[in-house]
Please model this.
Amino acid sequence: MTDVDDLDRWVDRYAAAIRERAPERVVACYHPQAAIDVHGLADAGSAWNSKHSVGTDGILEEYERFFALVDDFTVAYTDRIYDTNARSVAVIVRISGSNSDGTSFDRANALHLTFDNAGLITTMHNWYGDA
Model:
């Protein structure tokens, strides 16, 4: 059975790949048929835009695009709410830094991840906002 330590380990593995700006490592945290939904800005050219992708190739493209649009950032995965029966966790994420166009950002987002038995992300829902 999945416990809180499992969920923390899986979230921390994902967070480490994000901090390393390593799209291939981020995608390795996902199940090959995973789906992501991001509820963000209406600006399609922004790193913080709304998006939906399914599967390894689409998810890889989204992270490659994100890392190309965001130059430098610090990120903290703070408050966590666990559902061990559903193998899911909701996390408050605080991220700040600079975009490739020279603008800066300070955001908070609500991230919800579900995992399979092996600890791979099966769904990701993310809501961006200003901190």
Notes: The first strand starts at residue 30 and ends at 39. The mean pLDDT is 94. Residues 4-130 form a domain with the Nuclear Transport Factor 2; Chain: A, fold (CATH 3.10.450.50).
